[in-house]
Amino acid sequence: GVKLEGGGTLRVAVPVTRPELASALDKTAQDQAILQTALDVRDRSEQPTVFVTMDTNLRIRADALGLASENYESQKVDIEIVDRGMVELDVDGFFHEGHFTPPSDMKLDPNSCVLLRDRKSPTHTALGRYHHDRGLVLPLRVPAGGVLGLRPRNKEQTFALELLLDNSIQLVTVLGKAGTGKTLLALAAGLKRTVDDEVYSRMLVSRPVIPMGRDVGYLPGDIGEKLNPWMQPIYDNLDQLLTTRDSKDGRNGTKKDGSRTFAELQDRGQLQVEPLTYIRGRSLPHQYLIVDEAQNLTPHEVKTIITRCGEGTKIVLTGDPFQIDNPYVDSTTNGLSVAAHRFKGQPLAGHVVMMKGERSELAEVAANLL
């Protein structure tokens, strides 16, 4: 074998067909070859052998065959450490001076969202953000009227808009259960900065194609028709945002077809929705990039996406670490949780967790109970 710098030896193993696997698994399956190799190594070695894989099903099969197995621990993060991105402080003076200077023994991460409470009147609160370069907690700058007619309904949504609209924050991670407004707020901020303010040349929205039911290959039609159901949540949110904006602008506010709205923005080169597969190998400068359902990505895939970002690009990762369809990651190993944890403390990154569902009472109860 080949000795590795970090320790250990790399060997090329040729799997040997084992009778106990032949009847249980397809002989051509890669899983069978992997298990055969692991069992062969165990039988030949005098030292304890542990089979390491992120594939839960494969660990179950290994356990059934008496082979010790473990999950890949290197990339795990403690989901409790991935905090809410918000701190609460009892302060004096902020409401009169318009800022708060944290004491030297108080550690606040750059872009921390802060709920400030007046010591003398605890019901008197304000929302702020810690600006690391100035060493101050300053009031939020979210427009009073919201964005595209969309007004934040709770403090977490207000914090999220603050981070999503700030051009100096290049990476934003937004975590939250279904119905908290993660995708809607990200799209609203992206449209505002791309279409209205022209800060970015294009808004690119992408999602991992990991279906909850049958794979897209089973659906009829060409690739565009196959991906339409997958894109529909984006169309629905765009439909809601642009219809609201039309009515606010004094237009008739007639409800538009989401796919047609998408086509209009696409024709102007200001919006593109595509699978993450198409992003690999590209350079993406001056774009507002939204990756929805990022909890279904591996840390390596998230790294690949972020390293595609060129000069002037902002990337937003949204998702729910507890609602994962990818069998190879969990709440502690998915790319969204890992990115939120690893970028903690970086001045160019911001993080917030959405706690309260705003879609409907039914959606909120379902997200909590099911």
Secondary structure: elements and pairs:
Layout: E1 2-3, E2 9-10, H1 19-22, H2 30-44, E3 51-52, H3 56-64, E4 69-70, E5 86-91, H4 94-97, E6 113-118, E7 125-131, E8 136-139, H5 155-165, E9 171-176, H6 182-196, E10 202-207, H7 223-248, H8 258-267, E11 271-275, E12 287-291, H9 299-306, E13 314-319, H10 335-342, E14 349-354, H11 361-369
Parallel strand pairs: 3-4, 5-6, 9-13, 9-14, 10-11, 10-12, 12-13
Antiparallel strand pairs: 1-2, 6-7, 7-8
Helix pairs in contact: 5-6, 6-7, 7-8, 9-10
Overall description:
There is one protein chain. With 370 residues, the protein is of the alpha/beta class. It has two domains: 69 residues, no CATH class; 223 residues, P-loop containing nucleotide triphosphate hydrolases (Rossmann fold, 3-Layer(aba) Sandwich), CATH 3.40.50. It is 32% helix and 18% strand. The strands form four sheets. It has a six-stranded parallel sheet with strand order 11-10-12-13-9-14, with helices on both faces. Strands 5-6-7-8 form a four-stranded mixed sheet, with helices on one face. Strand 6 and strand 7 form a beta hairpin. Helix 5 packs parallel to helix 6, helix 7 packs across helix 8 and helix 9 crosses helix 10.
